[in-house]
Amino acid sequence: MNECTRSVFRCTPLALALSCIAALGAPATAQDSEPTPAEPESSEITLSLRASASHTFRADLDNDGGGGADVSVTRAGAGIGVDWAPADRLRLSFALDNEFSWYDFSGTAGNAFDDLFSEGVEHELSVRASWILDGGNTITALGS
Predict the structure, then answer these.
(1) How far apart (Å, rounded) are the C-alpha atoms in residues 101 and 54?
(2) What is the pLDDT, as a whole number, of residue 22?
(3) What is the largest CA-CA distance in the chain?
(4) What span, in angstroms and rounded, lies between the C-alpha atoms of 42 and 88?
(5) The pTM is what?
């Protein structure tokens, strides 16, 4: 190896060490800082859909032990909800839920209740307003 080549190899580790120290000691630029999370838009709207179903195979209605009285109930429900943030600290929610129920009475209950009803329908409209206070507390007003 000639003298010139040896001096290049001797300088290379020193140059690498100096460049690393310079890079670590350099002040952070705007590109190096962590990005701040974006604030949620004040007009953000969220839509939710709900569905439910249940079946009670046989419930005993006989409380006095006088005879067999049973009912089975089948239910199906669906709903939709809308959440809206018209301002930074205000949230409004609207929901419409429906549930349909079918009743099957048997035994002595069948004689008593079959003529009264065999199905039921429930509709519910609800409204909620929430105001977010400093410190994370919330004031909420509900209507249904």
Answers:
(1) 9
(2) 46
(3) 115
(4) 5
(5) 0.56
98: left (phi over 0), alpha (psi -120 to 50) or beta: beta
Residue from 121, 51, 46, 59 nearest 91 by CA? 46
- Tell me which residue of 78, 73, 70, 61 sits closest to 102, measured CA to CA: 73
SS3 sequence, the chain? Answer: CCHHHHHHHHHHHHHHHHHHHHHHHCCCCCCCCCCCCCCCCCCCEEEEEEEEEEEEEEEECCCCCCCCEEEEEEEEEEEEEEEEEEECCEEEEEEEEEEEEEEEEEEHHHHHHCCCCCEEEEEEEEEEEEEECHHHCEEEEEEC
Per-residue pLDDT, 63: 62
Residue pair 66/77 in contact (Cβ under 8 Å)? The answer is no
How confident is residue 4, by pLDDT bands cut at 50, 70 and 90? very low
Which of the two residues, 114 and 13, has the higher pLDDT score? 114
**What pLDDT does 14 receive?**
44
Handedness of CA 15, 19, 20, 21 (dihedral sign): positive
